[in-house]
Specification:
Elements lengths: L2 H21 L4 H14 L4 H29 L5 H22 L4 H21 L13 H6 L17 H18 L4 H11 L4 H27 L9 E2 L2 E2 H22 L4 H20 L1 H9 L1
Antiparallel strand pairs: 1-2
Length: 298
């Protein structure tokens, strides 16, 4: 790999790690477009480049999420039961999503990625934010499962906080995560914040923790379904490129801590604004909207 590509991946890892810690996302919405550009520039067939980018982004999201989750947990911003239930269901959904991505056309995957990112951004930007109660944990996970006020969740939310609801939410989130190579936080944070009544900081911390399991399911799927595929670039394990993963993760993991600190210092409305603007830009770029605009302006 040429040094310039390695440098671009390291810089991308810095941005993705910061976003992971600050926004509760895996950073895939930043890593995927850059990886596609690097791989196609190196001569990899575009559809294969998309699948490798998805699988590699999930592989990087895994250790980055572990690092970020520890930071959020130390600040009391993780609801363990919710994270576990979402993560277990997300694991299964992500494995199936990766299987579908292994046979889907490249353009379909690009459009799906863009639509998911933009839809999540619009929802996060327009829905009202439940108040973050800030109360300390006083009565355990069981109270959270029953809809109680432990962990400072607040009283808002349109859905019950029962175990079954978390599992039902985790499956489709995991599927979309595996299908488009994101850890699941792009969807999980809005769902936890808007539908489940979590304050934004609790939503970010719990999402980051659930991503550990969701990303694991997606990584296993991309590795398994890419093992027998010919023409993969060097250092590939199925649809996961180990060299790119090392460059991205080496930069993103330490930056996740900086993102965690930023998340707990920024006001909730500013955090939501950063989340939404970055997502809309990346989604439009992946769908080719800016390329169409440039063509029309010529």
């Amino acid at each position: 790999m040429e040094p310039i590509f390695a440098l671009v991946l390291v810089v991308t890892g810095v941005a993705a790690g910061f976003a992971s810690g600050m926004l509760g996302v895996g950073g895939g919405f930043i890593m995927v477009p850059v990886q596609i550009w690097v791989l196609t520039s190196l001569g990899v067939e575009p559809t294969m480049a998309i699948r490798i980018s998805f699988g590699t982004a999930l592989a990087v999201a895994l250790p980055t999420a572990v690092n970020g989750a520890f930071g959020h947990h130390r600040r009391g911003a993780v609801v363990p039961r919710a994270a576990l239930l979402l993560g277990v269901a997300g694991f299964a959904g992500a494995f199936f999503g990766g299987a579908v991505a292994a046979v889907a056309p490249g353009e379909v995957l690009r459009v799906a990625f863009g639509l998911v990112v933009i839809a999540a951004a619009v929802r996060m930007a327009t829905a009202p934010d439940p108040k973050f109660a800030g109360r300390r944990h006083i009565s355990g996970d069981d109270e959270v499962a029953r809809g109680g006020g432990g962990y400072g969740l607040g009283g808002g939310g349109a859905l019950s906080r029962s175990d079954g609801v978390y599992l039902l939410l985790g499956l489709p989130i995991g599927f979309i995560s595996g299908l488009v190579g994101i850890g699941g936080g792009l969807m999980m944070v809005p769902v936890l914040s808007m539908a489940m009544g979590f304050g934004i900081h609790r939503a970010v911390g719990t999402s980051t923790t659930a991503i550990i399991l969701t990303s694991s399911g997606g990584v296993l799927s991309y590795v398994y379904h890419g093992l027998a595929v010919p023409g993969l670039p060097p250092f590939s394990l199925g649809y996961v490129n180990l060299l790119q993963a090392a460059l991205l993760a080496g930069a993103s993991i330490p930056m996740a801590w900086a993102g965690v600190r930023a998340a707990h210092r920024l006001p909730a409305d500013r955090l939501r604004g950063v989340f939404s603007l970055v997502m809309v830009y990346i989604g439009l770029e992946m769908m080719g909207a800016f390329e169409i605009l440039r063509h029309l302006m010529r």
